[in-house]
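can u do me a favor
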């Protein structure tokens, strides 16, 4: 039961991060979606954009804590650490 709640929190945070990434690339960057992805790849900006894309996790984490769903909040925190690991990894690659 506990693992299921943590997994739900992890998946919700993953969806929030993907949604944040899409919103940033589509609406903030002045280029088209495909051009933006090419620029991110060429200039190695994946880590910075992933960091910005993880901001919606704060909202999800706060909502889970407000609803007293602590294990789901742990899943959000776990996913945030995974994103932080990928950001760290992207700095060295």
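np, heres the sequence
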């Amino acid at each position: 039961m506990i693992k299921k709640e943590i997994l739900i929190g992890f998946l919700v945070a993953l969806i929030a991060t993907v949604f944040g990434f899409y919103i940033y690339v589509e609406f903030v960057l002045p280029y088209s979606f495909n051009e933006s992805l090419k620029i991110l790849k060429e200039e190695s900006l994946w880590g910075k954009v992933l960091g910005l894309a993880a901001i919606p996790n704060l909202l999800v984490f706060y909502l889970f804590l407000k609803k007293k769903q602590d294990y789901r909040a742990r899943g959000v925190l776990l996913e945030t650490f995974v994103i932080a690991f990928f950001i760290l990894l992207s700095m060295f690659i």
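The chain has a mean pLDDT of 92. hope that helps!!
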